[in-house]
Amino acid sequence: CFGCRYCGEIHVGSVGHPFRTCRGMSSDKRKGEHDWGSTFVEAVFLPVEAYHLEDRLGPRIPHDQRFEVPRIPALVELCIQAGLDLPEYPTKRRRKPIVKIGRKEFVDANEDDLPDPEPDKFKEPILEEVSDDEITPPSSPEETAALAEETLKMWETLRNGALRLMKRYSVRVCGYCPEVHIGASGHKARNCGAFKHQQRNGQHGWQAAVLDDLIPPRYVWHMPESGELQKELKIFYGQAPAVVEICIQGGAQVPEKYKATMRLDIGIPSSLKEAEMVV
């Protein structure tokens, strides 16, 4: 997997693709050509962060407290609000519905009559993060294919689970920038730097988020069977999420839902002369 040193584009393959689509620094001098180099897993699975709310029904985060509230992966924050308990990120749990005393005011219900909550004996421990030194590559083609199938299955499980949680818990995204907030109302931090942010004093334009806002798929060019991309035949190539493309090149079966964007039903000409004959 390669990443451009000047822009955020990545490519999954033995060498970088030949398309001149770079818009980074000094791209005009390079005529849009990418400068490929090694990349990291964060370039494939984009880390989207959000503010951690100790009380998801509490007041919105003001601008002057934006550095006092910790930021964690948005997917983790969504799981915490859905019931996941992490000691380093405490959150308030209510066992009774709130009591509204006004249009935007409420008080917590009295829970003194409830017994102390018992620990869940069926709760599974959270898996610890594996360090890079402990990760070993597969040693055979069969092991590579099995790992690719398992990774692709986990990718779909992750996205399907996140989509189900988003239908129950509100997730907001700025309509101008990629900022994500887990909660019914977005925060008040004025840190939007998108187009015409001066006119809005840096305020975000919050709207309902979709799954791709929380877990960006990061589309890359799909490598054809020939294993080579030609810039003259760009219109014939398809794309797939980077995680999916890595798994497919590792030996996993192509999921049905990605076949359309990968354009597998389109025959790729062998040369530019043959492409010019296409009607």
From TrEMBL:
Q: Which domain of life is it from?
A: Eukaryota
**GO molecular-function terms, A-Z:** RNA binding
Q: Which residues form the APO domain?
A: 3-88, 173-256
Name the Pfam families on file. APO_RNA-bind
The record's annotation in InterPro entries points to:
APO_dom
Protein known as: APO domain-containing protein
Organism of derivation: Aegilops tauschii subsp. strangulata (Goatgrass)
Lineage summary: Eukaryota, Viridiplantae, Streptophyta, Embryophyta, Tracheophyta
